[in-house]
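Extended Data, panel c. Modelled sequence:
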Amino acid sequence: MSARTDSFHSPRLPTLLTLPLGLIPRRLNSAVLAQILNRVFKPELAEGELDFLDHKVMRISVEDARLDYRLTLRQGRLEAARRGAPDDLSIEGNTFEFLLLATRREDPDTLFFNRRLRLGGDTELGLYAKNLLDSIELEGRVGPLLDVMNRATELLSRFGA
């Protein structure tokens, strides 16, 4: 990959594209993501593999997109965390790094070790989350979305070239 992807030169979404994203209420963003993840992780939720998040708040911050998701697990389902609840775990980075993670173009350990994705709070929770993502084959679950994410990753890599 020819794009420079260190923490200071990571390809970023153009500001003009991100302005409308910042207008969407955070709780609504989180609720939508929770619904999607409940479908994607349905087998793992049924098996209790996400129970490490039970009543814990995980914040995912996509900095260049101005998106901030706060999720928790209640009664075996992911949902938007309640306002004011403290974060137990945070994962922060730019769109490009999250796309690299989702499309498996980059190893999660490399992204975290090089601080392209930053982990905060309870690192044990972060390790559980990372290991869960490593163990799941998403290709069959997200179908055409994986193609969209791969194309977006390639497009963003051109911004950083």
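Confidence is low (pLDDT under 50) at residues 1-8. This feature is highlighted in the accompanying rendering.
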